[in-house]
TrEMBL record:
Residues 11-262 form the CN hydrolase domain. The gene is NIT. This is Hydrolase, carbon-nitrogen family protein. InterPro entries: C-N_Hydrolase, C-N_Hydrolase_sf, Nit1/2_C-N_Hydrolase. Keywords: Hydrolase. One of its GO terms (molecular function) is hydrolase activity, acting on carbon-nitrogen (but not peptide) bonds, in linear amides. CDD domains: nit (cd07572).
């Protein structure tokens, strides 16, 4: 089956790629440059990756910079949105957590007036020992969120997730079918080994199965001796086609842009109406036949 024809784009979005470090000021300057570029290209919203404000060297470094969403660091990013006139999806912020030893990894949506419209605390924490790669135990210094969040924006309804959430398709199913999300956001700092193996295929799968746009901002390149990110920030359409991508993880700091066409999204959903065909499997009896 061929995809439906494209309609005229109704809005333009920018996905960002950067290489954050433990230098708060340098990270802010990079984000400022990306926001200015998005504004100059006529984008209404810029998507920034997980850990956009800070990536430490040790796992607990972020505890030293965590603060509430009404604190001075977030205030700078809120002012940046206001100054550029661009909405900002801030993919993962070290929000003050439930105790001194834990923060939240919080995805924050800020409008062009500098107001926080929504925030989502990452639910699935990345605790893995990657063969030939880093040992990352996010739960040692972070606490998981307990709410699923969608929010309206100039380009449509956004399903807010963060990085490792990508591996849990039931989250995206609920965002689409129960909360009406049209654009799934996956701001990330994917490791190089997992990124090379799984990044694009998982993102395209989420786009195809939810018939939604997927926008995945990315960290890229070497942050420190202990940490490297895969990059390849990407925008994918509801048919699973890659619309825009930053290829080079070392020199690819910048933005990629694409039109978000909600009319086209509705055409895709009407052509294969999975929403009408979907069954509530939690109501089905489940059996396992044993030997």
């Amino acid at each position: 089956m061929e995809p439906p024809p494209k309609r005229a784009g109704v809005s333009k979005a920018a996905v960002g790629q950067m290489r954050a470090t433990n230098d708060l000021e340098a990270n802010f300057e990079t984000c400022s440059t990306l926001a200015s570029a998005a504004a100059s290209q006529g984008c209404s919203i810029l998507f920034l990756p997980e850990c956009f404000a800070y990536i430490g060297i040790a796992g607990n470094d972020a505890l030293a910079v965590m603060e509430p969403l009404d604190g001075p660091l977030m205030a700078r990013y809120r002012q940046l949105a206001k100054d550029t006139g661009v909405w900002l999806s801030l993919g993962g912020f070290p929000e003050t957590g439930p105790d001194a030893d834990h923060r939240y990894n919080t995805h924050v949506l800020v409008d062009s007036d500098g107001d926080v419209r929504a925030s989502y605390r990452k639910i699935h924490l990345f605790d893995v020992d990657i063969p030939n790669g880093p040992v990352l135990m996010e739960s040692k210094t972070a606490s998981p969120g307990d709410a699923i969040v969608a929010a309206d924006s100039p380009i449509g309804r956004l399903g807010m997730t963060v990085c490792y959430d990508l591996r849990f398709p039931e989250l995206y199913s609920r965002l689409r079918h129960e909360m009406g999300a049209q654009i799934m956001l996956v701001p990330s700092a994917f490791t190089k080994p997992t990124g090379e193996a799984h990044w694009e295929v998982l993102l395209r799968a989420r786009a195809i199965e939810t018939q939604s746009y997927v926008i995945a901002a990315a960290q890229a390149g070497v942050h420190s001796e202990k940490r490297e990110s895969y990059g390849h920030a990407i925008i994918i359409d509801p048919w699973g086609k890659v619309l825009a991508k930053l290829e080079d993880p070392d020199n690819g700091i910048g933005i990629a842009t694409a039109d978000i066409d909600l009319g086209y999204l509705e055409d895709v959903r009407e052509r294969i109406p999975v929403d009408k065909h979907r069954r509530k499997l939690e109501t089905f009896e489940a059996t396992v036949e044993k030997e």
